[in-house]
Fold each of these.
Amino acid sequence: MDMITKIKEGLGLRIVSWEERSPRRVYLTVNKEDIFEVSRFLFKELGLRFSTASGIDAPLAFEIIYHFSDDASGVVYSLRVVLSDKLHPQVDSLTPVFAAAEWVEREIWEMLGINFKNHPNLKRLLLAEDWPQGDYPLRQGR
Amino acid sequence: MSHRVIVPIGPYHPLQEEPEFFQLYVEGERVVDIDIIIGYNHRGIEKLSESKHFDQIAFLVERICGICSSSHPYAYVLAVEDILGGEEKVVPERAIYIRTIVDELQRIHSHLLWLGLAGHFIGYNTVWMWAWKYREPVLDCFEMITGNRNNYGMLKIGGIRRDMKDEDISVLKKTLDELVPAVNMFKGAVMDDPVIKARLVGVGVLTKAQAIDYCVVGPTARASGINIDVRRDDPYGAYSNLDWNIIMEKDGDIFAKTVVRILEMYESIRIIRQCLDKLPRGAIDADVKDIPVGEGIGRVEAPRGECFHYIKSDGTNRPIRHKIRAPSFMNVASNKVGAVGGTISDATITLAAVDPCYCCTERVAVINKPDNKKIMNGWDLIKLSQEKTNKLRERFKDGRAQ
C-alpha cells in the first residue's frame, strides 16, 4: 500500500481537503482540533519526518502549514491548519509528539504571536530579550 | 555530590567564528543539562524577502550563509520553479548541470572547512592547516566558474546567470584530480589514527531514535543510521542521471559524522566529473517573466542537510510569504541530547560536530543609533524622493527653469 493510500485511510474524515499539485507535493487541510492526533499518526505510525512549519498571517486568518516529508518517496505532505481567531490564535503544540517541533513552534510564537497549548518551553528563540512584548515581526501591516 | 555548576560558553565563542551561547550545567566533569541560546545573528530575512521582488531574493537568500551560499538560492529558485511546474520543465538542461557542479563543489569546500575546524577543536591543528590549504584550490575553481569565491550569484529563476567556458572544464578536472590524493590523506589521517579514534569514537552520540525525534538532517542524520538525502529522495539538479552513493554510518558519534563527511567528498568529486563529461550544450536561462499565484516548496541537500524554502505568491512580483528553514535549525537543537551525559571537555567538539551554521539558523539586527544621526528606512527615502520631484516640478512649471 502506498503512502498516499495509507494516509487517506488512516486519517479518513479528518482530511478536510486534499490536493496533489504535482507528483511530489501534496497539500491537505485538517481542522486545528485534529492536528495533534493527525501529526502523531503521520510521525509515529507512518514514520514521516517533520521538516518544518510555516506560519502565515493571511488576511482573514492565521495559517500554519506543517510540512512532513516522506523520504522514501520524496513527497512533501503540507498540512494546512486555519486559525480563524485573529485576536487569540492558538493551536495544540506538537512538541510532546516530537522534539523537533520545539524550536519551530517557539519561532512561530515569537514571530507571529500564535500560542501553542501544552508547549513545555514556550520562550523566545531568536528575538532579543528586550524586544517589546506583543510586537510580532512577521505579522502583516506592521 | 550533585553540586551543579553552570559553565557559560559564549556568546563570543572561544573557538567558533559565530556568536552562540551555551549554558552547560555540569556536575563535576559531567554535563547534565544544556541551555542553547541563539538569535545573535537574526537579521529578519524572511520579512525582508516580502519586500523584494522575485529576482532580488536569490541574492538576498544567498547572504544567509557564506558557506552554503548556493544552497539557499538553489532551494529558493526550486520553490519558485515548483510554482511554475518544476525545475526539469522550466530550466534548460545545461543550467541544471552547472547548478549541480556548483552545488557539489560547495559541498567539498564546506566539508573541508568543517574538517579543518574539527581538527582545530580537538587540538589537531595540522589537520586544520591541511584542510584549509586544500580548500583554497576549490575556492579558486569557484572564482573561475562564477567570478566569486563565495556568494556566487549563479542562481536565478529559470536558469543560471553565467555560463561555464570550455577551457574551465579541464582546469576543474585537474583540480579535482589533485584533490583526490589530499582527501586520501585526510581519510588516512583521520580514519586510521588511533589518537583521533580515542578522541572521537563514542563521543557525543546521537542515537537513531534521538535523531528521528529531533528530525535531524544531512550528515548528522546519516551518521546516526538514517538513510536520507534530498538529492536522491526528492531529486533536483542532474542527480538522478548520475551514479553516486549515499554515505551512511550507524554509530551516531562524532567519528561517524567525520567519516560521513570525508567519504562524501569522494562522491562529490565523482558527481562533478560525471557532470563535466555529460555537460550538454545550449541555453542557460529560460527567461522567466511572471510568477503566477501559488505555493511552492524547494528542497536542497546543503552540506549540512535539507535546506527548506516555502514560497507563497499572489501573482505580484513579490512573495507574500517566504519561509526558510536551514538545516542547522534542526541539527543544533539535537545538541541537547548530544552533549548531555558527556564530559565538559567533549562538549566543545560535540557542539561543533553537527557543523552548526548560526547565520543560517537565525535570519533582526539591532542598530545602536548615535543621537546625531538619522536612520532612514525605505519609506523615508520614497518620501524624500517625492519631495524632490515636487520641488523640480515647481521649478519647471512653465516648461523651463525658473
Amino acid sequence: MGLTEEFIKTRHWISHRHPHTAGTPLLRVSHLSLRYDGVNALENLNFEIEPGERVAVVGPNGAGKSTLLKIIAGVLKPSEGSIDIYGHEPSGHICIGYVPQRNQVDWNFPVTVRDVVMMGRIGKLGLFHNPTRYDWEIVQQALETVSITPLANRLIHQLSGGQQQRMFIARALAQEAELLLLDEPLTGLDLTTQEDIFRILEILQTKGVTVLLALHDLKLAEEHFDKILLLNSRLIAFGKPASVLQPDILLQAYGGHLHFVKNGPGFLAVEGTCCDGGENHP
Amino acid sequence: MSDLILAPLQYPFMVRGLIAAIMVGTVCAVVGTYVVLRGMAFFGDALAHAILPGVAVGYLLGNGAREPLFWWALIASIVSALGIGAISRNTKIKEDTAIGIIFAGMFALGITLISTVRSYSVDLSHFLFGDVLGVSGRDLWLSGSFSLVILLSVFGFYKEFLVLSFDPILAATLRLPSKLLDFFLIILIALAIVVSLQTVGVALMVAMLVTPAATAYLISPRLPRMMFIAVLIASLSGVIGLYFSYYFSLASGGVIVLTTTLVFLVVWAWRNVHFRNNYFGIMIKRKKGIHE
C-alpha cells in the first residue's frame, strides 16, 4: 500500500466524504474477484443490494463470506472488479459498520462497553476533537436500542456472547452506519440469544439500516432474511429464500456435504461439515 | 529517615538523576501501555538495541556532545523500524524473524563502531546500562522537550491510537490512516527509547517499556487509569532505584529495572492469591448448592 494512498485516506479522514448519490443502489458489486497465493477466493461476483434489505450471506466454510464482507467494508482490496456504495468506492464512506467475529477481538482489552460504543463516533469527531455531549447522547441511545444500558460501565471481558454482539451493533449505530456487515454473529449463541439479535436487527430495519450477515444456519437464513446470497467462491444464487433454497442449487454450493431430510411438504437441509470457530481470511 | 531521603539531594547530579528517572518513567510507561496492549514487547526490545549504531556514530562525530547522540539514535531506530517492515512485508519471513535479524545486525554494528574508541568498555557499558548520574542540565532540557512531544502526541491522538490498538478493522472502516498512525506510534516508541538512553541504557530498556505497564494492566481495568498507574509505578521505581544505587553503590539502571520487576512480582502474586480466593469461594458455594 503506497504512501499516496495513505495521504488520500488522511484527507478523507479530515474533511472530504463521498456523497450518497440518489437513485443508485446502496451496494453494487460488479465483476469482483479476489486472489491470494494464486487461489481464487472470490470469483467474478455480480449483485446489487437496495437500501433497507436484509441479506444473509450463506455458504460452506472457506466460501469467502468473511472476505466478501471485508471487501465491502473497504478493508480488503479486490484483485479485479469494483464495489460501489451509493455510486462510490467504499473507502470514501464511513457509513459502513462492521461487526467482527468474536474470536478476533481481544476481550481483555481494558475498555468498558461505553468506551467501545464511543469508538464508533471517532470517524465523525475528527482529529483533536473530544466527544461532545451530543456524541455521548448518541452513544446512550445506541446502548438503549440494543438494551444494554445497564452494562454501559462493564468491562468488555465481563460480557456474555449475546451482549458482546449487542455492544458491536450499538457501536455501528453510534457510527450512524447505513450498511451493517456482521461476520457470523450467531456462532456459539444459544437459540434465545439468537432470537434477541434478530429482534435488534428488525429494529435496525425500521431505522433503514441495510444488513448483510454471514451465517451457517440455512433455516435461520430462510426465516429472518429478505434475500439469501449463496456463495462458494462464485455466486451460486442470489434472491428470495424460497428461490435460493432449492436442493439442486444448494448441492452446487455444498456438494456432497449437505444432506436433505424430508420435512413435511418441504425439506430440511442439514450441513455435514459443521463449523464452530468460523473462518479466518487474511 | 528524612535525612536518608534529603541528604543525597545536596548533590546536583543526584537531583538531575531523579528528575531524569521520573521523566523516563513517565514517558516509557505511557508509550509502554500501547507496547503491552499491542504485544510489541519484542519489537520494543529490538528498537532499543538497534539505536546503538546511531549512538556510536553520534558519539564518534560529536566528540562527547550529547545532542548528536539523540538525533543519530533516532535515525537508527527509524531506519531499523522501516527495515523490519520492509523485510516482513516483501518476503515470506515472519515479522519476529525480521526483528531478530535487524536487531542483532544493528546491535553488532554499534558494538563494532564503539570498539574503535580507546575507552571502549567504559563508554559501551554506559550506553548499554545507562549512566543516570552523568545526566547534565542540557541533557535534561533536551529529554524534557522530547518527553513533552511524546506526551502531547499520545494525548492528542488518544482516541485514534485506542481504536487502532483495539480493533484495526474498525479503524479501517472509519477510514483512519492506519499505516501512518502505526508508524507514528513506532516513532513515539523510538523517541521514548532515545529519551531513556542515558537513564537505563539500551539493554534494559524493554523493561521500562513493558514492566510498569504490565503491572498496571494487572491492577487497572481501564486504559486511562492503566496509563496513570503505570506512570506512578515507573517513576516511583526510578526514584527508589536511584536511592538504592546511591547508598549501596549499585548500577543505577540495573536497580531501577529490578525495582519495577519486584513491584510486578508483588502485584502478580497478590492478584493470584486474590483470584484463587475468589475461585475457591465459588467452588465452596457450588458444593453447598448455592447458585448465583
